Amino acid sequence: MTDQTTDQASSSAVWGLDVGGAHLKAASSRGDARTFSFPLWKQPSQLSERLGALLEDARVDRLVVTMTAELCDCFKDKEEGVATVLDGIAKAFPKVPIKIWHTGGRFVSDAEARANPWGVAASNWLALATWVGKKFPCDAALLVDIGSTTTDLIPLRDGTPVPTGRCDPDRLASGELVYTGVSRTPLCALLSRVELGGVSYRTMAEHFATTLDAYVWLGDLPEAPELTETADGTGATRSFAQRRLARMIGSDPTRFGEDDTTTLAKAARQAQLTLLESAVRQVAEASLPDAVDRVIVSGQGEFLARRLRDRCPRLGRSETISLASRLGENVSQAACAYALAQLALIC
Q: Which residues form the Hydantoinase A/oxoprolinase domain (predicted)?
């Protein structure tokens, strides 16, 4: 959630860079990893400066890139978004050779990326799935990557991703992309009503609280007082989370006690799990009709991915591989960037 780096000396020459709309993530093939919070849609002109700060102490001889930031609503379309991201990267690293990951499963040049922006837009999920398939091959697997904003559910067969869709609209239709995450999703997108003390309340369709508040309150995510990218700009603490959650029914902590807060937070978690369970069924029916041998979980929301696995009969007996356990928390949260750096060594 907060700005993070590993403690390893940053001597690695090959770095993967994942440019999102809310976070910048970088990782080297050696396992150095860092995540910076950066609301690009608010400050697109500062992209190159923030990218430079992200890797200011690193030796970067080669850079491989993926992005989702092109979707930011400060851009009129994907062409402008892709071009702006690539301009920012080129300005930040003017002497570094750069390749961009394509949804065709290959690296392309800057010129090809600009000529075909839909081919490189929102391609980070495929980089992660491609590397996961090579690292943990099996007959049938499902990658469950839950981040701050979105969830990717990627089917794999014999170590190869077999997605139904490649671009955001097609992936939303297939269930392989679910636009819900454990930090930035507004609770009004999950809950229209909540029952508290035997009374059913309609919730307020306002950006008063997010999933971050529910999971901080429940203890699934740690408190982060310095994190102010919240619904009201105050820190990610339990006391502030309670205040934000109370606003969902037009209340405040003087009348909205701890029991009410816990009930609302659990209702949000239940609604999110129900949404994701439906998507898992859709993906499994389309691409993994037989037994699923492995479930690979990653991202900030690994804790939710584990709950999801336990709720889905098709996944309950599958072997579970946690990227956080295998690679460390920081690398797991920057898993797409790490996967890029690994793929750059073999592609």
A: 65-310
Q: What are phi and psi of 99, to 5 degrees?
A: -125, 150
Amino acid at site 100: I
- Average pLDDT of the chain is 95
> Residue 20 is encoded by which pair of tokens?
């999102």
- pLDDT for 134 equals 97
In angstroms, rounded to a whole number, what is the distance separating the alpha carbons of residues 31 and 12?
Answer: 9
Pick from 302, 338, 325, 334: nearest CA to 35: 334
Give the three-class secondary structure for 48: helix
Q: Residue 176 falls within a domain, yes or no?
A: no
Q: State the Cα–Cα distance between residues 77 and 254, nearest whole angstrom.
A: 45
Which runs of E-coded beta strand occur in the chain?
A: 4-5, 14-19, 23-28, 33-37, 62-67, 98-102, 106-108, 140-146, 151-157, 160-161, 177-178, 193-196, 199-202, 294-298, 319-322
In a domain, 118, yes or no: yes
Report phi then psi at 79, rounded to 5: -60, -45
Find, among 300, 341, 316, 320, the residue nearest to 146 by Cα.
300
pLDDT in tens, 311-339: 999 898 899 999 999 999 999 999 999 99
Tell me if 247 is assigned to some domain. Answer: no
- Which DSSP helix (H) or strand (E) runs through 319? strand 319-322
Query: Residue 69 burial by CB count (10 A; 0-12/13-18/19+): exposed, middle or buried?
Result: buried
Enclosing domain of residue 101: 4-122+328-344
**CA dist., res. 101 & res. 208, Å (int):** 36
**Cα separation, 31 vs 49, whole angstroms:** 24
CATH code, domain carrying 340: 3.30.420.40
235, 249 Cβ separation under 8 angstroms? no
**Structure token pair of residue 161:** 């991703």
> Residue 9: pLDDT above 50?
no
Q: What is the pLDDT of residues 45-68, one digit of tens each?
A: 999 999 999 999 999 999 999 999
Q: Residue 10: its pLDDT value, please?
A: 41
Identify the three-state secondary structure at position 161.
Answer: strand
